[in-house]
Amino acid sequence: MAREVIVKAEDVKKRSVLSRIIKITLLIILLLLCALYFTLGLVYREGAFTVTLGEGQDESSGLVVFDDITSARGQRRLDAIPVNDMDNISYKWLPDNIDKEADGSHNGDNYLAYSFYVENQGDKTYNYFYELVVDSVVKEVDDAIRVRIYENGVDTTYAKIAADGKPEPLTEAFKLDLKRPIKGQSVVVKKRENFSPKDTDRYTVVIWIEGDDPECLDNLIGGAIKMHMIITEEPNE
């Protein structure tokens, strides 16, 4: 009888140790998930679209960016307000006056819209380039993404080339090397020539998921994309 009691006590001790190990393991997994969620939040929810001046650009140059025409205070980086939950829509649903309705962030239902300015506050004439760079993509959501850029009121819509190798309807294809991951690639590159002192260019960038795209399927649910535009000057010699 005494022997049976001793065996049961050892079993209880083992179960207690096992229970402690399981609890510690679950706690570690929970902490790792929290850290992962926080990291993804920083990457995909904060600064989902930014505008920056080129890193190698002389800070004393006259090329500046800003998103408030009333102050025109030059900055080196602009941050749009992200859209955390974006469902697919049709381009037909975008407001007709989306380019002119506001400065800065003016997001709507299921699209990001951001307006800003590039100005030459120096005393030299420049050419400059603007590049749209894809920083990261989750679940290949880029297959159905549309980016519309208004440059001084003239708009162009860009998209990844379709599965059949042709540009999507009503779009220009991303300048993309399909043999490489899209992450880190400049998908739009444009040159602005003869940007004289006191010249100001207005841009509006609109980003949405195009529901009429044949590749807009359920597998994109939970996807995310992060992009930025970089403005780089080139002295006009």
Notes on the structure:
The protein is an alpha+beta fold. The chain has two domains: 1-45; 48-235, no CATH class. It is 19% helix and 35% strand. The chain has one helix spanning 2-45; strands at 49-53, 63-66, 77-79, 104-105, 112-120, 126-138, 145-151, 154-159, 172-173, 186-195, 200-209, 224-235. Strands 2, 4, 5, 7, 8, 9 and 11 form a seven-stranded mixed β-sheet that branches. Strands 3-1-12-6-10 form a five-stranded mixed β-sheet, with no helix packed on it. The longest helix has 44 residues, at 2-45.
Question: What distinguishing features does this structure have?
Answer:
2 domains, globular, seven-stranded mixed sheet, five-stranded mixed sheet, 237 residues, 12 strands, alpha+beta, 19% helix
Global shape = globular
| Strand composition percent | 35-45%
Task: Describe the oligomeric state of these chains in a short phrase.
Answer: single chain
> In total, how many beta strands?
12
Overall pLDDT metric = 83
> Rg, please?
25 Å
